[in-house]
């Protein structure tokens, strides 16, 4: 799951039918916590159950849902449901809810790194061009240039893709 997403956790309980009501509790155990903490109770509920009469004793199947909206990193953990019914408490196996890291910080870091690399490459190219121009000026003496006249050593590079060999 991503931050900002929504999810509905589901707890299904299959028991023998009894006259009592169900009390449903939801727990969340975050990573690093030794004990889960209670986060939600449904109170006395039996309206989400379907009864079935088959061979043997009658049974019922109940489904309880816990909607979670606008998820954040603090919602990550293992969610458990517990249902108190017919004089006993039934615990679910747990559902792990992972919230992915927001990739925004990583994307900004990559963009900054690429900008630094691009700037470095451009500076290297500029230094190489200046070095080549200065070396060229030293090797070939232009008319009207003296060895100490560095203002004369200016080279303009023009690239024309349409030019033909002559």
Automatic annotation (TrEMBL):
<protein>
    <recommendedName>
        <fullName>Ig-like domain-containing protein</fullName>
    </recommendedName>
</protein>
<dbReference type="GO" id="GO:0002376">
    <property type="term" value="P:immune system process"/>
</dbReference>
<keyword id="KW-1003">Cell membrane</keyword>
<keyword id="KW-0812">Transmembrane</keyword>
<dbReference type="GO" id="GO:0009617">
    <property type="term" value="P:response to bacterium"/>
</dbReference>
<dbReference type="Pfam" id="PF07686">
    <property type="entry name" value="V-set"/>
</dbReference>
<keyword id="KW-0391">Immunity</keyword>
<feature type="domain" description="Ig-like">
    <location>
        <begin position="1"/>
        <end position="83"/>
    </location>
</feature>
<keyword id="KW-1133">Transmembrane helix</keyword>
<dbReference type="InterPro" id="IPR036179">
    <property type="entry name" value="Ig-like_dom_sf"/>
</dbReference>
<keyword id="KW-0325">Glycoprotein</keyword>
<dbReference type="GO" id="GO:0005886">
    <property type="term" value="C:plasma membrane"/>
</dbReference>
<keyword id="KW-0732">Signal</keyword>
<keyword id="KW-0472">Membrane</keyword>
<dbReference type="InterPro" id="IPR013783">
    <property type="entry name" value="Ig-like_fold"/>
</dbReference>
<dbReference type="InterPro" id="IPR052051">
    <property type="entry name" value="TCR_complex_component"/>
</dbReference>
<dbReference type="InterPro" id="IPR003599">
    <property type="entry name" value="Ig_sub"/>
</dbReference>
<dbReference type="InterPro" id="IPR013106">
    <property type="entry name" value="Ig_V-set"/>
</dbReference>
<keyword id="KW-1015">Disulfide bond</keyword>
<dbReference type="InterPro" id="IPR007110">
    <property type="entry name" value="Ig-like_dom"/>
</dbReference>
<feature type="transmembrane region" description="Helical">
    <location>
        <begin position="108"/>
        <end position="128"/>
    </location>
</feature>
